[in-house]
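Morning!

As promised:
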Amino acid sequence: MIAIVDYGVGNLKNVYTALKRLDLDVIITSNLNKINDAKAIVLPGVGAFKDAMENLESHNLISCLSANVKKGKPLLGICLGMQLLFDKSYEDGLCGGLEFIEGDIVRFSNELKVPHMGWNSLHRNKNHNLIKNVADGEYVYFVHSYYLKTKNYDDVLLYADYGVKVPAVIAKDNVFGMQFHPEKSSDTGIKLLQNFKELII
Amino acid sequence: MLTKRIIPCLDVDKGRVVKGKKFENIQDVADPVALGKYYSDQCADELVFYDITASHEERNIFLNIIERVAETICIPFTIGGGIRSVEDFRKVLLAGADKVSINSAAVSNPDLIKEAALKFGSQCVVLSIDAKKNTKGSWDVYIKGGRENTGIDAIAWAKQGESLGAGEICINSIDTDGVKGGYDTVLNEKLSKLLNIPIIASGGAGKLSHFEDVLKCGADAALAASVFHYKEIIISDLKNYLHTKNIPVRRCNY
């Protein structure tokens, strides 16, 4: 069973539908026991970084997620959910993150249109089973105003170009992240979620 | 590279697509889900479903449509028509929509933009503006489906919308809408230079080069309805055409 973490930010149904379509056993939950029992965790999210961290905190989810990650359980963060995996974000001031992977979340330069919105092409930085069968130049749907400035570029599997190299798929041990919306990215998105499924079963 | 988006718009009345020609491969062309899927398969980048249902009682039909679209189609879609409150936003987002477009309601209550952006994020707030050229060489904002001139300057309103937290501006040019003589490239260029958020051009598409013209003028996306519904332009052909004109587009089957 896969637990999609429900912490009161945004609509989780589209992620749920996409995983269900892959014949996965999925639940949407904020119940700590269910998250502890799950085989893998998906952390979605849209909206503001600080609100998301406060909501995780108020649901007692921060220590729960940390404990599960330490145990080696696979965790996939999507969009804001990916950003939360890092040390801190500069969105509306400064806010600490889950600190599973080293890196900061920073805003795009104002010389660009922000949000970075639309279909952008993916380029390979490093091979990994999470991105197998995804060819260089395939498109996925992004919508975000902040991006990951990573400490270790080795954590980045795929990136997109938007003024800077925007980390799009990241992996470090059992922690994974997708900055775009795989559930909204047509065939390429489905392929990436399918790869995630194969990693965890 | 970030691509320019092509967005078909479907007008839906009581759960049925209003205009459209018979398509091969679709059994029920008036079913918004079937038509949306067809466009998605043709490589449309996003979809807009615009609810024109007049009576309030029948609006729940539309929520059901949104749910079915979200279950069937794996590209982003926007919902517009009849959205007046944060609660309306919540309903359509929970049904599975990715973005919500507001028009007249934002003019009468600009704080709606701010409240929705704070609550659900700017990424889902699309400010749609009906603009018509006036005799002074600028553009006025119209409301109520283009029937009423507010006298508000369209460019100033777009700028205000951005600062209130809109994530995107959809600019519908009343002068060019339905004429099929091309988008208002002048207005789109001005807005694109002035604003820091993406611009969707709407109104005026008649042939392939119209898309090229407006996307080269700075618009980030081009929206159209009838040229797609009446099969005058096939989206995959349009994408191939734009590609040959060096406009970055996402192509699906080539």
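The two ends of chain B are 18 Å apart (CA to CA).

Hope this helps with the figure draft.
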